[in-house]
Specification:
Strand content: over 45%
CATH class of the largest domain: Mainly Beta
Mean pLDDT: 85
Shape: globular
Number of helices: 2
Radius of gyration: 28 Å
Order of helices and strands: EEEHEEEEEEEHEEEE
Length: 246
């Protein structure tokens, strides 16, 4: 059986047919690019990181960098059972000039130290097909170029502080759902601080929940520059409980 293909009339240069549309995908040419199919995600930290911890062990690497390890004690409660979980934490330290000696590294062993201006880099979860799930973070890598011994007892063995500075643009009350009243009510123990973040020529609004700060108290922060000392992410929300006026 012979199939006949109807030929469409051609259009001379300069002519426009009534049905021509820039939105049409008729006569579409499909090509390929030589770019890699592996997705990449750049992480741009918008907060500062400080670490305090009790040094449990160390290692001076071949490149002269120093790795300090901590033991993080985490209080947990599941099914009415309270327990303390343990996790390894570490940071890689590099000097701006020179290398760490074993003697210098050993001087930190068993002591509480503080490290500021820490660079935090996420390690994303790798999927079975070799690509990365940028919505899930497996762990963080920490690097810095400074360390000092501090006179402080660190009960948990390791503390990480995410610090952010901003000017409070507006303050609004935090809302929660009251199961008994079956209605939304104001959460008297929380407030929401709104601030602006500039990125080139764009300005975006961000919100952070301040735990333990009443709406009346939070209103005194409006228009002031503040420093949040314990920024944390809970679900899709950012929260804090320690803040001060700059």
């Amino acid at each position: 059986m012979e199939t006949t293909i109807e030929k469409k009339p051609t259009t001379q240069k300069g002519e426009v047919t009534p049905n021509t549309s820039i939105y049409s995908e008729d006569n579409l040419f499909i090509g390929e690019t030589n770019e890699t199919n592996e997705p990449k995600r750049e992480f741009e930290p918008w907060y500062k990181v400080k670490i305090q911890g009790l040094v449990r062990s160390y290692k001076v690497h071949d490149d002269g960098s120093l790795q300090l390890k901590f033991e993080h004690k985490i209080n947990k409660s599941i099914g009415g059972i309270d327990f303390i979980d343990l996790e390894d934490k570490s940071i890689r330290l590099r000097k701006d000039a020179g290398i760490y000696s074993d003697k210098e590294a050993k001087s930190f062993l068993g002591k509480s130290v503080e490290i500021i201006d820490v660079s935090e880099s996420p390690v994303y979860v790798k999927k079975s097909d070799g690509t990365y799930d940028f919505g899930k973070i497996e762990r963080y890598l920490y690097q810095a170029n400074n360390v000092k011994v501090i006179d402080k007892t660190i009960e948990s063995g390791f503390e990480l502080y995410k610090i952010v500075e901003f000017r409070v643009k507006e303050v609004i009350p935090s809302i929660k759902y009251d199961m008994r009243k079956k209605a939304q009510v104001v959460d008297k123990d929380k407030s929401i601080l709104i601030y602006e973040v500039e990125n080139d020529t764009l300005v975006s609004l961000h919100k952070i929940i301040a735990n333990g700060v009443t709406f009346q108290k939070a209103q005194t922060l409006k228009g002031k520059e503040i420093v949040v000392l314990d920024l944390a992410q809970v679900g899709k929300n950012y929260v804090c409980s320690k803040l001060k006026i700059k």
